[in-house]
Amino acid sequence: MTTADTRFAYATRLNGFKADAAKVWPGRNRITSLDLIERAATVPGLSAVDFNFPDHLEGTTAKDIRAKLDSLGISLNGFAMRYYSDPGFKKGALTHPDKAMRAKALELTLRGLDALAEAGGDLMTLWLGQDGFDYSFQADYLRLWDETAEGLAVIAAHNPAIDISIEYKPNEPRAFSLLPDVATTLLMVSDVNANNMGVTLDFAHVLYADEMPAYAAALIHRRSRLLGVHLNDGYAKRDDGLVAGSVHVIQTLELLYTLEKLGYHNAIYFDTFPDAVGLDPVAECSANISAVEGMCRVLDRLRGNAALDAAIAAQDAVASQRILQTALYGAA
Q: Which residues contact 150 (CB under 8 A, 6 or more apart)?
């Protein structure tokens, strides 16, 4: 399968490609992000990668990344900020109680934006996992909200040519994230009111936020911009990072159906964790692409189906499920 044959541009999480490093790179003491790109590029149909900042730029530069991507024919989907590399941010990044630490988090983020621009990218994903609280009487909630909004406004204004996308998650590492669900995230995006800000939907995060993925995507489209989709799967208890469609086939199918209706044209990013359970990351990523391509073929059988449109309009779940069953398994 080549990228010209796929329905979406597909990107993937690079960290998983560190798995079995001793077998893949025998005798190597240090594996760089450039090595991980090379390994990811062997996945048939993969067209893009994301980089975590600052960790994936350690020992390399944005120009080196750009050159490596060009040599492999791989696109840069974007950067994702990671604040966990500094233990000082455990109490928060944009909401740290120490003003100097908040300034440090902002400075790190602006450096990330500059590196992203130098690498030729235009999408920065922010997962504010360190910003939240764990106890009652621990936080001044409105102060945390205002500090986050103020920080995001500075980040968005730094380079208006770069889109800033908020990836929400209910918890972990904090017991309660400040931006735990789609509605709260959309409130924050509205308060910041920046033209280059939107939302990234992570399928597993949505599940354990007790949300329906397609509904969350529709709300983001209505109130903001859907800038990224992280596809994976899980059991709605935590961020399992399983292969797309391995648990929630119908919900994934409805999300893809909705993305098509909404005109989503950005990459599908596989935020899955083959390294956590000893899977071959090349085979696992290939399985992700195969799963989505297979579901897209099901969508081909549903597109323009007047009976499905009528069932949805009538909220007739039995009729719609029968149509889905036929599309998935064939006529009885």
A: none
Q: For residue 167, what are the contacts with CB-CB under 8 A and spacing of at least 6?
A: 80, 125, 126, 127, 199, 200, 202, 205, 228, 230
- Residue 177 CA neighbour count, 13 Å, CB half: 22
Angle at 291 between CA 287 and CA 293, to 5 degrees: 115
Six-digit token string for 60? 């390399």
CATH superfamily, domain 3-303, is Divalent-metal-dependent TIM barrel enzymes (3.20.20.150)
- Average pLDDT of each block of 10 consecutive residues along the chain (332 residues)? 80 94 91 96 97 95 96 97 94 98 98 98 98 98 98 98 98 97 98 98 98 98 98 97 98 98 97 94 98 97 96 98 96 72
> What are 326's two structure tokens?
């036929």
Specify the pTM.
0.96
Cα–Cα separations (whole angstroms), residue 241 to 4, 13, 220, 237, 294 = 27, 11, 22, 11, 19
Strand, coil or helix: what is 95?
A: coil
- For residue 72, report the phi and psi dihedrals to the nearest 5 degrees: -95, -10
Q: Which of 188, 166, 69, 57 is nearest to 111 (CA)?
A: 57
Provide the pLDDT for residue 60: 94
